[in-house]
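[stage:ingest] chain + small molecule (NAP)
[stage:ingest] validated
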Amino acid sequence: MSKYKASEDRYEKMQYRRCGKSGIKLPLLSLGLWHNFGDKDDFENARNILKTAFNNGITHFDLANNYGPPYGSAERNFGKIFAEDFKQYRDELIISTKAGWDMWPGPYGNFGSRKYLIASLDQSLKRMGLDYVDIFYHHRPDPETSLEETMGALDHIVKQGKALYVGISQYSAKDTAKAASILREQKTPFLIHQPRYNMMDRWVEDGLLNTLDHEGIGSIVFSPLEQGILTDKYLNGIPGDSRAATKGSYLDETQITPEVITKVRRLNEIAQSRNQSLAQMAVAWLLKDKRVTSVLVGVSKVSQLEDNIKTIQNLNFNKNELEKIEEILQNK
Ligand SMILES: NC(=O)c1ccc[n+]([C@@H]2O[C@H](COP(=O)([O-])OP(=O)(O)OC[C@H]3O[C@@H](n4cnc5c(N)ncnc54)[C@H](OP(=O)(O)O)[C@@H]3O)[C@@H](O)[C@H]2O)c1
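[stage:predict] done
[stage:export] tokens:
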């Protein structure tokens, strides 16, 4: 029996936004378990991050089959914490997982076949100790498998009762519209798209957000802080415990160029004038677009999550601030 009792006022601390035209509302900030929940990470730190999230009204935890390292370990560690602390709150949580990237050897452990997706979700449910997930995603487009097959697999999974809703990630606007049409025909509940979006990577503004709005589908945007670049952490060099200093991560020191840091420093000054951290301003900047349902942050420390959650205290921008930000970014 868990000793964890969630803060009673957790729902007063967060704001929620409707996900497209669905019945689901998501917190403005959600928590991703891509990093910091694997076997090489500190288990108690991971547990404290999850508790801090839920204590602040973050009801959505996002996983994938291959989060770790090693692959599968984030789901396994989440499963242990879930069993000990969160089981009693299952109906207050939206838990998602995905398949689409490489997971096991051979031709059936990658991309978008019916065989891969159905087997992978069964494995994920076992690792997490869950009967079902709330959202199951196809993690990336598969250029060789028909959308009919991949969307058919998502439909089957919902009919099996193993996922309540489905989503897709990293799909173009065009493929999203095609997927939506197939899923509509099948009457599969297509809840959400998970694209990469932040101040420095704005591809979604070029059609995808319009398509989602038109189709009544929500969005949850990943790497909102450009993996940490859009914070003040790299302003004075590369801290030894940062993602950029971690071997095998998708961020390396060569991406943190003097040109990037010049922009970040100028953005940081605007954030300071708003009495916000840069991380908070970067999250608020994404949420100013109501087509963004939720911002999916990753954190390595409880203090980072607490910092990011304070974003909701100041979500508004004036015209002057927005113009200054555009002048710095030069990427519209
Ligand atoms: N669908 C997909 O293909 C896909 C791909 C990638 C991610 N995702 C999802 O999106 C989630 C978030 O992605 P992400 O981890 O790249 O997001 P992110 O929020 O852009 O970056 C997270 C990193 O930024 C740093 N950070 C966060 N808050 C901070 C703060 N307040 N002050 C200073 N540093 C801070 C931490 O880095 P340090 O480790 O340096 O402390 C943290 O690990 C993932 O967990 C996953 O669920 C999905």
